[in-house]
Design goal:
five-stranded antiparallel beta sheet, 46% helix
């Protein structure tokens, strides 16, 4: 266990290295952090920290830089995440306000995260199988054609063109109301079971059109988009290319693997998760860090976060990921 002074020295090395990208020396620590000890004492503490694997000396006569173990110790002992400024809060609100459906929410969110963290943002689409039907509508168009519209609890809107024949507006309204009474609030599999018997329980004048409408509705429920990942900010990695052990290529390859990203985000909970360097199960991410959090509402949850070099501003990044996850959850709850 590190004593308070060694912890202060380690914290100084991490914060200074994150800011400057340069190895940190003992004299700089004393001067910048106003430690009431001599540079010689700090050097002794740095030697002890190096022996315990928290820092390393990249080359002779250089200062020290944190190891994965050093970053982990620093992150675990953060007394609080860096609070967002009012400007940052307003930016998040303005960027996400007005999203019209789940695709728009995800697109806006990954762009926002990439912008505020200067890292690569990744976001899992909510699992559609856990969403429920919110509303069904039948919109007459022209020449007996119409549009079947289905909105789910995640705000996703699906449409199918249907043939309405010669059915009148009153009968369409009756069919629409029966559909909503039957499936609103149900998941896709539950709704499918109910819909199978619905046409037989309707009056003859709407039964024929009901068969086609129900068939189209079942198609919509069966073909909802599977869980997938959205990525933004790939170009942000270019500014950190010299910070990866070999090259940036392995990280870029991993960002193209949807299954790997889904597994990474699948580990996230409502608390911010941080995986640093070698803590990642994937060799391609051994010189990268992942910061992620879950978002969602009721039984529908997914993950979002960032991927970047181990040398990142953890307090600020963790605060941004948490704030965005909470705001997206709020949007879904109010949608």
């Amino acid at each position: 266990m590190l004593d308070d002074r060694k912890l202060a020295v380690l914290r100084a090395i991490v914060t200074d290295y994150i800011r400057s990208r340069e190895p940190v020396g003992s004299r700089a620590i004393v001067e910048r952090h106003h430690l009431d000890v001599s540079p010689a004492t700090v050097r002794n503490d740095m030697a002890a920290l190096e022996d315990e694997g928290y820092i390393i000396q990249p080359h002779t006569s250089a200062g020290r830089i944190p190891t994965d173990k050093g970053y982990r110790f620093f992150v675990d002992r953060l007394s609080a995440m860096k609070p967002l400024t009012n400007a940052e809060k307003r930016a998040i609100t303005a960027f996400l306000t007005g999203a019209v459906d789940i695709d728009d929410i995800v697109t806006r969110t990954v762009r926002l995260l990439a912008q505020v963290t200067s890292q690569v943002a990744i976001m899992q689409y909510p699992t559609m199988s856990t969403a429920v039907v919110r509303r069904v509508d039948i919109v007459p168009l022209h020449d007996s054609r119409g549009l079947l519209v289905v909105v789910n609890s995640l705000g996703k809107v699906a449409q199918r063109s249907v043939d309405l024949g010669s059915v009148n507006q009153e009968s369409l309204a009756v069919l629409r109301d029966r559909l909503n009474e039957s499936v609103a609030g149900l998941g896709p599999s539950q709704a499918a079971k109910v819909l199978g018997d619905l046409p037989a329980n309707l009056t003859p004048e709407v039964r024929g059109i009901a068969v086609e409408i129900v068939s189209s509705l079942l198609d919509i429920l069966a073909t909802d988009q599977p869980t997938r990942i959205a990525v933004a900010g790939i170009n942000n990695l270019a500014q950190f290319s010299n910070e990866f052990e070999t090259s940036i290529r392995p990280v870029l390859d991993t960002l193209e693997e949807q299954v790997v990203l889904l597994r990474l985000l699948g580990e996230a909970s409502t608390e911010v998760m941080v995986r640093i360097g070698q803590e990642n199960d994937y060799a391609n991410l051994s010189s990268a860090s992942v910061v992620a959090s879950a978002y969602g509402v009721d039984d529908t949850w997914a993950g979002l976060g960032i991927v970047g070099p181990t040398r990142m501003d953890y307090p600020s990044t963790m605060a941004s990921v948490r704030a965005v996850a909470r705001y997206v959850s709020q949007i879904l709850a109010e949608g």
